[in-house]
Amino acid sequence: MKRQVRNITLLMVWLVMMSGAALADPGTEPPPSVKLSGFASVWQQYNRCSAAAFTMLISYYGWGGTYTDIINVLNPHVEDVNVRLEEMVAFAESQGLSGIIRTGGTLDLLKQLTAAGFPALVETAYYEGAHVPKNWMSHNRVIIGYDDAAQTFYAFDSLLGFGADGTGRPLPYAEFDEEWRHFNRNYLVLYRPSDEAALQAILGDQWDAAANALWTLEQAQADWDGVYAGDAVAFFNLGAAQFALGRYDEAASNFDQAVQGGLPWRYLWYRFEPFETYLQLGRYNDVLKLTQQVLATTPGVEEMYYYAGRAYEALGKLPEAKVHYKRAVQRNTNYAEAAEALANLGG
Known about the structure:
Blueprint: E1 33-35, H1 49-59, H2 67-74, H3 85-94, E2 98-102, H4 107-115, E3 120-127, H5 132-135, E4 136-147, E5 152-156, E6 169-172, H6 173-180, E7 187-191, H7 196-203, H8 209-225, H9 232-244, H10 248-260, H11 273-280, H12 284-297, H13 302-314, H14 318-331, H15 336-344
Antiparallel strand pairs: 1-4, 2-7, 3-4, 3-7, 4-5, 5-6
Helix pairs in contact: 1-2, 8-9, 9-10, 10-11, 11-12, 12-13, 13-14, 14-15
């Protein structure tokens, strides 16, 4: 299956976004270079790149709040180390915007989105210091431009900066793609509800979640068949795509290989598909083992308490489940799934 990023409806009239950037004409190749403007520049606090990147992204749509406002919603606990993209979408929706999260992105698709005035927030790997496996972590960036001649994207990066002229930090295509694949090349796009048809036209088949999962699986398989064969992240990405398609047995097998193959130690701070998969298959003790491993070094990952609670509940250990759901909610009062699970147990 070929990605349909260029299958743009010829009759669609694209709107000019608030930033004033001209949008590409439907049905045409994106121009060789584009830079969007109208973003707040936010330097992050420690372990708060997600909130910073999201503040910059939503500022493009005229949102007038502050970085502190976003932290209070997305990182209400001082030890919180991660924000799920779904949390960002939920906040955007509370402000009258819409959002879509997809995986299996390509460089061409990011250029199409940017040319049309839709900046994307992406999760990438970031390496701190010389010891890469030890210091690997997630880092969120906002793609605000590109230049084909220079083979470079431009990003607003809350840790590394906004470029010498403040209009975007250069990020070479090849370097970016290597860092992006660690998160199955995911992307979050916010949009005004009135612009949904224009965005849907750009995404084509990728607008549909099932089609996107199939594409992501093909992309992950291509990575595996290529230079990343045997790589723990490649195993993980295959498993994540299979999980999205409901192929739990295959997904679990690949997650097992990924865990055994030496994932970066922070990896499960950010990616939770193995927990969901093992729960589907009744592998509750494996869920507890993994959650305990994460919490032993990082007690601030509220999702670990939630998944441990689900495993305990499935095992019939309701007091333990209730305690873990309560801890999840205490660490993030906006954690709707944990709050609902706790309420169902009378908490």
